[in-house]
Input
Amino acid sequence: MSDRPNKVVIDEELCKQCELCVVVCPVHALRISDRINTKGFHPAELYEYDKCIMCGFCAMTCPERAIAVYRPEVQKA
Amino acid sequence: MSDRPNKVVIDEELCKQCELCVVVCPVHALRISDRINTKGFHPAELYEYDKCIMCGFCAMTCPERAIAVYRPEVQKA
Amino acid sequence: MSERILMKGNEAVGEAAVRAGCRLYFGYPITPASEIAEYMAYRLPQVGGTFVQAESEVSAVNMVYGAAAAGKYAMTASSSPGFSLMQEAISYMAGAEVPAVLVNVVRGGPGLGDIQPAQSDYFQMTKGGGHGDYRLLVFAPYTIQEVVNLMPTAYELAFKYRNPVVLALDGLIGQMMEAVEFTDFRNPDEIPIPEWAVSGKFRHGGKKNINTSLDLIPEKLEAHNWKLQKKYSEIEEKETRFSYFGVDNPETLVVAYGTVARVAMSALKKLLNAGRSIGILRPITLWPFPKQALAEKARHAKRIVVLEMSSGQMIEDVKLSVFDPNKQYEFYGHPGGVTFTPTEIEEYLVRG
Amino acid sequence: MSERILMKGNEAVGEAAVRAGCRLYFGYPITPASEIAEYMAYRLPQVGGTFVQAESEVSAVNMVYGAAAAGKYAMTASSSPGFSLMQEAISYMAGAEVPAVLVNVVRGGPGLGDIQPAQSDYFQMTKGGGHGDYRLLVFAPYTIQEVVNLMPTAYELAFKYRNPVVLALDGLIGQMMEAVEFTDFRNPDEIPIPEWAVSGKFRHGGKKNINTSLDLIPEKLEAHNWKLQKKYSEIEEKETRFSYFGVDNPETLVVAYGTVARVAMSALKKLLNAGRSIGILRPITLWPFPKQALAEKARHAKRIVVLEMSSGQMIEDVKLSVFDPNKQYEFYGHPGGVTFTPTEIEEYLVRG
Amino acid sequence: MTKDLVVAGFGGQGVMLLGQIIALAATEKGLNATWLPSYGPEQRGGTANCTVVVSDEEIASPLTDKPQFAVIMNNPSMAKFEPKMAAGGTLIYNSTLVTQVPARQDIKVVAIPANELAEQAGSARSANMVMLGVMAWVWRDVFTQEDLLTAMVHKVGDKRPQLLEINKKAFALGYEAAQKAI
Amino acid sequence: MTKDLVVAGFGGQGVMLLGQIIALAATEKGLNATWLPSYGPEQRGGTANCTVVVSDEEIASPLTDKPQFAVIMNNPSMAKFEPKMAAGGTLIYNSTLVTQVPARQDIKVVAIPANELAEQAGSARSANMVMLGVMAWVWRDVFTQEDLLTAMVHKVGDKRPQLLEINKKAFALGYEAAQKAI
Amino acid sequence: MKVVYERPKTLEKVTNHYCPGCHHGILHALIAEVLDEMGLAEKAVGVAPVGCAVLAYNYLDIDWIEAPHGRAVAIATGIKLAHPDVLVFTYQGDGDAAAIGLAETMYGAIRGVNVTTFLYNNAIYGMTGGQMAPTTLLGMKTTTSPYGRDAKREGYPLKMAETIALQGGTAFSARTALFNPKMIMETKKRIRQVFELQMKGAGFTFLEVVGTCPTNWGMSPVDATKFAETEMVKTFPLGVYKELKEVE
Amino acid sequence: MKVVYERPKTLEKVTNHYCPGCHHGILHALIAEVLDEMGLAEKAVGVAPVGCAVLAYNYLDIDWIEAPHGRAVAIATGIKLAHPDVLVFTYQGDGDAAAIGLAETMYGAIRGVNVTTFLYNNAIYGMTGGQMAPTTLLGMKTTTSPYGRDAKREGYPLKMAETIALQGGTAFSARTALFNPKMIMETKKRIRQVFELQMKGAGFTFLEVVGTCPTNWGMSPVDATKFAETEMVKTFPLGVYKELKEVE
Ligand SMILES: Cc1ncc(C[n+]2csc(CCOP(=O)(O)OP(=O)(O)O)c2C)c(N)n1
Ligand SMILES: Cc1ncc(C[n+]2csc(CCOP(=O)(O)OP(=O)(O)O)c2C)c(N)n1
Ligand code: SF4
Ligand code: SF4
Ligand code: SF4
Ligand code: SF4
Ligand code: SF4
Ligand code: SF4
Ligand SMILES: [Mg+2]
Ligand SMILES: [Mg+2]
Output
């Protein structure tokens, strides 16, 4: 996963586990992780990298603005 | 005038000489008198007794409610 | 009914008011006083009373003004910033001699400040506040039981003297719980509507009642003011309350009220056990201030220590009461919502 | 510009503010202060300033709050009931250290009272007023010229100490006319916008400015309070003003301010001519109160006579300043908007 | 020198203006002057009055409880101020309207038919200017006629020449009447 | 006898309730008790705590700066209250969550895996009831187990029998653990 | 002899303090007439404002309270809840009800408090000597809009009857006037209607009445009355803006 | 790599104090985004309310002032008149702007003050722990309407966007929401619009934003968001209520 270009980057310390991003994602690419941050929340994570269409809905919905979304340069066929 | 039945009775002490009654009278039966009351105002008076149709407009317009209007019993013909 | 109930201070304020006969509450939420409104919103409908959440404290106190002028036991409660907004109406009520109970659960200031317990509205409640010459009876209970016990008195005196009465609490007393006993329950229907109440002429024999604080003729307004001052003198004479705890003629006299007095008690007890010549005079009425009692207790004292959760307000009344330059006056305070700890008071008194 | 102009006190307030550099006035009409607003409504547009008739005094003082926090000389004026409505915001401004000049043309109270000159807002302005521990610099001029002279100082000190300043007049000073000279005219464009002003980051090097009176951590709020207290001590030390007129060590010391002092002057002059050992100490700043000066002047006095158009408020500060039980303290007052006459003061002082 | 004067009458009689003109004249002469109005409820309907103090020293109280001079324009004002006059004071009254003649023996009383003279001048509304003329004579030790006339122009303006003429005439008639009466 | 106790932890850990149950039990026994919450900004996100004082005399200060007893449910609370403990005091902590083990030698320290035991009882949310059980043992000179259980029922109600069972079980596990640990 | 009109019993027989020709006097009298006709004077409580009507308590023979400036509806709320059986009305100026008291008046309507508010709209602050009111017409000169009210500088006239009509608890909101006998009769009819609605517990009832201020408008009473008829109504159209037909 | 979304520069990189899932955070971010896009952060002054957003000054990297409860528009008026060149906006809760501050907010609109007000409508007093707001829905239980808001007892929800739209000085009044990406984009568009209008000197601009309070509604953030979408909008219809097209 780490050598794939960034699509959805979540700042886990900012996340409050509200799940709004999870619900808003049109392709169900996000979920709440098992990890725990220093405030005691389980941050959201992108677990379906390939499904993600980089629509940005999660980012614009996140009340913490914990999410950044990038569109990797596409090697046009 | 004094032996004719009351039509318009003006409490001259209450009158403030605003002229609203004078202006509102449809038959121009009222005017401001020459007399002066203890507050220094010239009270209104009915000077055209016969013209007065006892409509009550002057009374309902008077901000001081200084006017009473009566309709004498009419001897039906 | 004399069961001991564990209750939050703010809720006890509400229940005590209900039991004193209050059925009309008008308030606007503010920490740390909101539970009074919340309790009343829940409780008053149960007993046929009315709770209104006003749009502001200005409006709340004016609703109380109306209800009280109509002869009923009414109440509002707030905390410092909200209480500041009530000052115009309070001056009016004092001027028009309208009785009501107003609760101020004081918090740290100035401005928005914080929401922790404080005593920095002393001047506002006892002297300044609104415009013009007037006084408010100000009760400063230091336990929840005392809150409950004072409530019927607050209403009685408000109506007896036709004057607003303030219950001065602070966030600590409002938020803590302890056991209280409620003994009274006054049926509001048995409280007569006073003669003077603005309640429709038919209620008082067709005589017209006017409630106003206006008198455009200064000589008449002056006479009205002297009448008020006479009333205030009578209140000073008859309604001053305090408690004293300690040795008879203490060398060190501590003056503190409300939460501070309560925290100081812990220290006092220790020092008395250690044989110190010390005592604490606790004003229960901040106005009228227990001047004479204080002067007497201070007679043999060397040190007079005033403890306040403020930067020093009651200290002025203490000095005016004792009025003796040959004493040592000490002020020790915490403004801004910081509460004393028993240890620090003890250490201060020992050190000093 | 040093022409003598016959002017109404209230209008002189406006003109003096304009000349001190004030271009923003927010107010709500009330007798006997309305002419200040009326003058500003007419005058400010002439000099590129802005007058806003606010919807209430609450709103007016908050507009001043905003404009002053933005770094500008702003002003409002009112009379007692309206001033009461400003108390919450005044506490905020003191807490957030926002400088402005607020004028209170005091009238008879409490409540709606009347519209005649009074001094019964002394406590409100010097101590009580809003919630929390704070102080206002309170100037009490007694001639229109003094109003004019104090105005630039009022703004300078407000900004120097970042604290609201009150100009305490009364209906008599507001309504009377006398000749004044205006010497200064400060170009507001030359008054720098302070560093701390909430005026857009671009105005102060991109650094973010926050103006707030909130600090939810009580220890920090306490520290802020002690910082304010330190400032107040500095003001007490440096900015106390008074005037004295009479023999050096008077047997009878009269204390009075504003209109009362002015009326008393007539009596004083007569008594001094008659060889009496008398003097009048006139506080020009009600807060800081001229404690030391008063204590000194009182050293040899037997009688200390406090004259107020109230039922007795400044008398407390007089006692606290002198703090000597071996003097005779006399209070003679008129609450409710009644003004002293020169004759009655003379008679009182002679008789007493 | 310190002189004080009360001017009292109905709201519409221009008593405030009369007081202000005198205060202005004093100011323009370099003297000290205060003008103090009664305001508020007294104004509406009832009497209005103002107090003028003129002095070559600093003026202490702008308010006087024993006026040395008074111009009284109507009955209620007479009732109010006659008893307050300082002994030896001068009370000038508008004899056209005031029917209640002063009884005190220890004051000087001057009756001026102000409304009559004003109408003579061209308008009953200039009765106050008649009284200004009277004061020009009464306080001739302080003001020249010119002083007061200049102040009057400064105060009421000279935009309406006709009105000004009437006022000046009224002033002159008042001055004349005072010369005769006193 | 006067005992005090601080209960501290995250907002959701039921520390306020735990304190209230103990205060209620004392009240129901005819003792005096005070319960004092921290309120305001401390609550949101950060730690919440309350102070309980129980006594057979009148209680002066409801607030204590040197607690004799403490129940600590999370790390921030440990950091806050360990240094404040009175010498000789007893500090009970939730060893499931608290990783910062107390260092002071002059206090008694009791580690209770409250969350573990709570989960054993049926719900991690009853960790506070585990601690109630612990306090039942620690303050056995004041309360019987019955006292505290009755107060618990009065406080949380018995409408949801399943929950009540879990709570009781948690209580029992806590009591047992305390017996062993102390 | 039939009585066409006699001074209503509830109108105290004293000279009021209003300036000659001021419509305040007419509105007072109409309220008194309706109270008489409905037999409600014994059960009525009036709330006087701060404004020219501050002394209204001297003119109607009913119980009265004088409220702080702008707080009449709050005061009325307290009284009504204390004694739901009394008829409570506030009598306020435009400054009182729509400037400093805007929130209180609005909340009467939002909350549906079962009281009546009469707003005397004379487009000016009468009592304090002619300052701008929320209802001052555009272009009008007042002592605080000496250059004429300019929308850009002094904002727009506030239309209270319309704004109040929008609120949920309003049972009635209308604007009438007093500039001729027809409008006077209309106003009286509406006064009766709002009192009836209140006695039925309908909620907040609001009657804005366009009046005059000859003194501060600088007009004769007759001219002021004409100005109300021709100019005021342009900015303040007369009419009923909300009217609850059925009261449960 | 193209940036689809990155945290706006003007949004301070700190954890805010809002409860998980509260829409306050979204509205903050949108304002920050628009300020960034318009390059206005250096010229902006925010007025923070008393309410949950009281600490808003910690979150946007612009100048801020914290106003007394309800007085934000008055404060904003003072600032704007002191510096007409800055962009001034207030950020307020429903309690702040529509209860205690109703008069101030209304007068922003009546006077046409050239500032922007954002009203976060969560139908409750969030900060003080869930008391009834002017906008609380009928039937909704809060700590001060424990039996559910009943129109007869607690009055009717106040519709601010509609009421503000009625006032003469209003250049723009609308109600939007944040419950899905479409509405979030719509809200952002409106924020830009009102800022543009203000920079043109159009007058008072008002944006009511329907938000949530998961904590005091006793719902999960997801449920609260759904409640906003399905229930809140019934009482508070979304839409533009007034929109000045031409600005002179
Ligand atoms: C708190 C307060 N602010 C201001 C005033 C002064 N004041 C008295 S009446 C009034 C306005 C009167 O105008 P309006 O309400 O329109 O009544 P009107 O006199 O025109 O009938 C004002 C501003 C006051 N008494 N109290
Ligand atoms: C004068 C005054 N009254 C009351 C309060 C208490 N208070 C703080 S915030 C608030 C209401 C908050 O509700 P809202 O404006 O809807 O904002 P939210 O928290 O819901 O975002 C209240 C009543 C206060 N600080 N000052
Ligand atoms: S960018 Fe769009 S598709 Fe990708 S995770 Fe976010 S919401 Fe889902
Ligand atoms: S929306 Fe943001 S805060 Fe909420 S779960 Fe997703 S990343 Fe976390
Ligand atoms: S009753 Fe009618 S006709 Fe007679 S005087 Fe009056 S208005 Fe004129
Ligand atoms: S309307 Fe009344 S007050 Fe006016 S002139 Fe006629 S009688 Fe006199
Ligand atoms: S000032 Fe105006 S409103 Fe007041 S009484 Fe006179 S005319 Fe009527
Ligand atoms: S209390 Fe409600 S409005 Fe406030 S931050 Fe929490 S969820 Fe948001
Ligand atoms: Mg008006
Ligand atoms: Mg809200």
